[in-house]
Amino acid sequence: MESGVPEYGVYGLVRERTGASLPGSVPSNTYPCRDGSIVIGGNSDPIFKRLMNAIDLADDPALASNDGRVSRTKEIDEALAVLNAADVPAGRIYSVADMFIDPQFIARQMLQRFPWQDGKEITLPNVTPKLSETPGETRWLGPALGEHTDEVLQTLGYDPDDIARPRAAKVI
Question: Fewer CB near the terminus (10 Å): N or C of the chain?
Fold first, then answer.
C-alpha cells in the first residue's frame, strides 16, 4: 500500500483489484459484494469443510478435495454467504478511499500527512505495527531532488562546478 495511499491522497486515484485468485486452489479469491469486495481463503480441506457446512454443501463427496472443487469453481463462488460465523477466513477488502475514512485507521493514526516540496500536503502510510511504547513514525521524507548531487560528485572525484556548466559543442 506504500504507493496506494499517496496516490489517493494527492490525486484521488483508487486502484482497482487486479486479481487475487489462486487458480487451482478453490475457493481463494476476491469476490464483489453490494458494498465493496471480500476475500475468501477457504482452500484448505478443513476450512473448506466449515465453509460448506455454513452453506449446506459439506456432504457433497465431489467437493471433499480440491480436485473436485476446481471443476465447480463458479458454483462454489456463487454460494458463499455466512462465513464469519462459520470461522472461515473472509473479510471486506478496503479500497484506499475506505482507509482514509475508517474510524480505526484514524484512531490508530495509520495515515500521516506531511508538507510536500511544492507546498501541498502528501499522505503516507504510518509505521506498522503500532506498538504502545514505541509506536514509530516517519520523521523525514528524504532529500529534495538533487540535494546531494554535489557531495556525491565530489566523492567520485568530480568538480561539481565543472560538470554543472554547459559545455560548448565541438565543431567537426
Answer: C
